[in-house]
Design goal:
alpha/beta; 644 residues; disordered C terminus; 17 strands; 11-stranded mixed beta sheet; single chain; two-stranded parallel sheet
Length: 644
């Protein structure tokens, strides 16, 4: 017969009274033996039995009090990087703060706490210290319920193998719940391991940036840290997102990924074709494409590229005197006299003659597919062309305006601009750490486009690494992923690990992601590519449901007590009954509403294929400790203030 143990620690420690009674009786037998009132053969065994029962009951009482002593939770801690360095010593392990593995007994305790007022069972501070609970309890003014972390009195440093995080990690939590602090821990460890690190931060967290700079100063060579900020281009680097490619069509796909989606897909497809025609033409002219050139020739017309391409083609195929051929001379004469209708003001007389010669005098089997595409674009109705590229031009204009254009389309021959020019291949080879601020608060559209383009370039780089067999580890961290997520990021989550690119994405709610991707099903499909989940406080019900679905269910025991009484027709006759029933049902490992009550910096996590842990992150103090102890209590947090 299977006997299940039922534990109810949220009650007075009745065992303490029983232990005192047993101890009193033991002392009584000891006294009667010393006075000679009872023979030793009787007094000593009875005294020993009573002493044993006393110790047993007192230990049970201590265990109940020890469990209750942690109901005050744990306050927010601020630890220096030097203090935390011991937890980052093993590069094969990931430090996840302090806490414990969440087991069915903890779920049972949490469900039982929902039935009582936990304040009735907290113990005084002096008793907590006697019971070995030396941690600072959570102040009453802080956000969240302390007893969620207090269902287990013993917490330990949490470490998980690095290889379990190669499947991608999702960090979810509402505003000011501690996502920045969690990212700071994961990024610092990536820098400490020597990973190439890319951080995409839409809102520019100053604390997070200082933590990353401190990690680079502690664990990397000088000049490892690089920064990109659209609002302050003078203090950062210039990024070339069109530098790395193996086929010209990759650039068109990269630009297509940042275009706003359309229902039928026709505008997106034509935008891809428009970019591809320009890129192919520039490659034929041995010019490196960039965003400024693409914008110039898509908005202003393909004519300059087409004219130069035809000149080179005729020189290769017809020789040096190609302009003196009779047919060419006749067409040039007619074009300069205005006998040819120009489709746009940008079309010169020479270009009209060149196109006419190419269309009517060059045999079909000698034509170039690149030139055919350019001629097709040139002949396209200009007004209709502008309409069908209406989705493309605003995006390109955002990325090429003012200082941002010089930052994203760098000119290596500009002697007046001394900022470094980098791309993801150079960042990878140099082992750099790139901190990309997107400045999304004042300009969300531009921020979204920059982030999406960076992710598209990273996805292409991951494919190149996979093809070339390069597996140097790249750690990608995307904060506010719902602002920048696109198909390339989903591809990174799905296949990036094979190319050595490992992603961690942070977001607030499932609804934000669903709005970006078009539906909740699409959002869940994207999140299905992330194997690990770290959930901080979240108030959104669909997000809570997604989290608890990931955590699964466990058996919860419930005690049902029945008491009834009644009287018969005869005076003095009555009946009564008392029954106790232990029932079992499968409930969520973590109740959904508990996720909305978590204190700042505390989380539930599912890692290593279903292992559930309950933990808390300390705040990393980015300032170096000179002449001070690298301990926790030098900068106590302000009560009630949300963690960054």
């Amino acid at each position: 017969m299977l006997v299940r143990r039922y534990e109810m620690p949220w009650r007075p420690a009745y065992e303490a009274g029983a232990g005192v009674v047993w101890l009193t009786v033991a002392m009584y037998f000891a006294g009667t033996w010393l006075l000679g009132a009872v023979p030793p053969m009787l007094a000593l065994p009875l005294g020993a039995l009573c002493l044993f029962m006393s110790l047993r009951r007192l230990l049970q009482a201590v265990e109940i009090l020890r469990v209750r002593s942690s109901l005050g939770g744990r306050g927010i801690e601020v630890l220096s990087a030097d203090h935390l360095r011991q937890h980052w010593a093993d590069p094969a392990q990931v430090f996840l703060g302090f806490g414990f593995e969440w087991r069915p007994v903890h779920a049972q305790r949490l469900y039982e706490l929902a039935k009582v007022d936990y304040r009735e069972f907290t113990v005084p501070r002096w008793l907590q210290l006697m019971l070995g609970q030396g941690g600072k309890p959570q102040p009453d003014a802080e956000i969240g319920l302390p007893y969620i972390h207090g269902v287990e009195p013993v917490e330990v440093p949490l470490h998980r193998p690095l290889q379990t995080f190669e499947g991608g990690t999702l960090l979810v939590g509402t505003t000011q719940s501690g996502k920045g602090v969690a990212l700071a821990h994961l990024i610092t460890q990536a820098v400490h391991r020597g990973d190439v690190t890319v951080v995409i931060d839409p809102k520019n967290s100053r604390r997070l940036k200082r933590v990353v700079e401190r990690a680079c100063a502690d664990y990397r060579e000088p000049d490892t840290f690089m920064e990109f900020h659209p609002a302050f281009p003078e203090r950062g680097v210039r990024l070339d997102f069109t530098f790395n490619w193996q086929k010209p069509t990759e650039l068109a796909s990269r630009i297509q990924s940042i275009m706003p989606p359309d229902t039928a897909g026709a505008f997106s497809a034509f935008g891809w074709d428009a970019v591809n025609v320009v890129v192919q033409g520039l490659v034929e002219l041995e010019e490196r494409p960039n965003l400024i050139k693409l914008t110039k020739y898509i908005e202003g017309g393909i004519e300059p590229v087409l004219e130069e391409s035809l000149r080179r083609y005729f020189e290769r195929s017809l020789g040096a005197g190609w302009r003196d051929q009779p047919e060419m001379r006749k067409l040039l004469h007619d074009a300069h006299r205005g006998n040819m209708k120009r489709p746009s003001e940008a079309a010169s007389a020479d270009l009209m003659a060149f196109v006419a010669y190419y269309e009517h005098q060059v045999p079909q089997n000698q034509r170039s597919k690149v030139l055919d595409a350019q001629v097709r674009t040139f002949r396209h109705n200009r007004e209709h062309y502008q309409k069908i590229t209406a989705n493309l031009l605003p995006v390109l204009s955002m990325l090429t305006s003012g200082d941002l254009g010089r930052s994203l389309s760098p000119d290596p021959f500009d002697a007046d601009d001394q900022r470094p020019i980098v791309n993801f291949e150079k960042i990878e080879r140099g082992g750099h750490v790139l901190y990309m601020c997107l400045d999304s608060l004042p300009d969300p559209s531009v921020a979204s486009a920059i982030g999406a383009l960076a992710l598209a370039d990273l996805a292409a780089r991951a494919g190149m690494r996979y093809n070339q067999g390069i597996y140097r580890r790249i750690a990608l961290f995307v904060d506010e992923a719902s602002n920048v997520i696109n198909l390339p990021l989903i591809e990174i989550l799905n296949k990036g690990a094979e190319g050595g690119l490992f992603a961690t994405c942070a977001m607030q709610t499932l609804a934000d992601l669903a709005k970006r991707l078009g539906s909740e099903d699409a959002a869940r499909m994207a999140l299905g590519n992330l194997n690990n989940l770290i959930a901080l406080r979240t108030k959104d019900r669909p997000t809570q449901d997604f989290v608890v679905e990931t955590f699964g269910k466990t058996a919860i025991h419930t005690v049902r007590v029945g008491l009834s009484s009644g009287s018969d027709a005869h005076l003095g006759d009555f009946s009564s009954s008392y029954s106790t029933q232990l029932a079992e049902s499968f409930e969520e490992v973590v109740p959904a509403d508990v996720l909305g009550k978590l204190p700042n910096l505390q989380y539930f996590a599912s890692v290593s294929g279903g292992r559930i842990i309950k933990g808390r992150f300390p705040i990393i103090d980015p300032e170096p400790r000179t002449g001070r102890a690298a301990a926790t209590s030098e900068r106590p947090p302000v009560a009630g203030r949300a963690a960054p």
